[in-house]
């Protein structure tokens, strides 16, 4: 009898307790959840805010790393962004589940998760649009307003609010010009604005005259605070890989989102607009769709996508999206995951969704460990930041970060890789990449004897031919990081 009683208690416990975590979390509950995970795993997590929404809600990020708050050279940075459309809520809940899962499994000694956390710096932002979410959540799942809560509190669709760099890259692809790190366009007029830029500029690397100005889009309207915060965020960390979680379909969508041919929805799947990294992006998308419970089957929500993946533009053309901006303005390769037919699934669906997505969310993070990575150093073993890493045959370069380390996602194969930096001779290496761990490929650049010659253009190195400081002082980097930490700390 006591045995039966304990079984009864056990069942009761699970009935009452276990499903409780599978529920929707309003803003206050979300914040509590993030701090709960942080308190459970204080040594491998950090909560920080990248800024505030229109209504003043924080855009919180939970970071997982064996050294939270620090970039460790050669350890790649990866991010997940959820709930950019406030009414597409599954990603938000999945990212909370993922946070709890990473913490628990790390504590349980799950070797796969321990390895992941120790070798990767993971940034999880469950909600990029907390204001929109509150509007959608006030209605709940049984909503007739399909778009209620999609936009931010100013009524702006955040996934149409980033600078359009596609126009420039399509021009450059034809006519020559930078193939990466495109600057913010001229029509993003900058105007001085003192009070609103305070939180802006502290942790921005000084690449472009962005930091001291307020951003305006072509219409003259101020760029939304959520967008602005994310732009600063992705400029201040050297992210390598990212996914942006949405709903309303079930498919892994990869860049470009904006069609080269300017077609609109209605002319469906006619204007595939691949990036120079198309094969890699297809693989990244497939990793997610095949590790997902049903995405890869292709038939979902009354639509069909072979392998559960699609080029964004071939589905429908989207301008000023976040995904393309990541690829064209930074080193980050981002895909967009559409995760549920219902944008606001019922609470009872959440457990099934988590089980369908869990393996995919982990495998996608693991994808940051492929291709090549390494240090770019000078003859005296000083770090060379902003060196350009070019792979012949792929017209999209990446750059080394502040610590001189670079990451270049590549599929298995043999590549000719060149590192260039102003004032140095280029160095070229032939590299064979296998399917497993990324290959370590270091460059040691020699000072060019021609460095005094002005306007010497490094091959394939785009517009960033600014003269680097002769030595990248570790102290300077340290100061910058300290500033970053101070500015990212959320309020108590
Ligand atoms: Zn969306």
TrEMBL record:
The keyword Magnesium does not apply. Pfam families: CarboxypepD_reg, Peptidase_M14. Residues 454-469 have a biased composition (Basic residues). GO terms for biological process: peptide metabolic process; protein processing. Residues 451-492 are annotated as: Disordered. CDD domains: Peptidase_M14NE-CP-C_like. Residues 23-368 form the Peptidase M14 domain. Keywords: Carboxypeptidase, Glycoprotein, Hydrolase, Metal-binding, Metalloprotease, Protease, Signal, Zinc. One of its GO terms (cellular component) is extracellular space. One of its GO terms (molecular function) is metallocarboxypeptidase activity. The active site is at residue 338. Its cofactor is Zn(2+). It comes from the Eukaryota. Residues 1-19 form the signal peptide. Belongs to the peptidase M14 family. PANTHER family: CARBOXYPEPTIDASE N CATALYTIC CHAIN (PTHR11532:SF80), PROTEASE M14 CARBOXYPEPTIDASE (PTHR11532). This is Carboxypeptidase N catalytic chain. It comes from Camelus dromedarius (Dromedary).
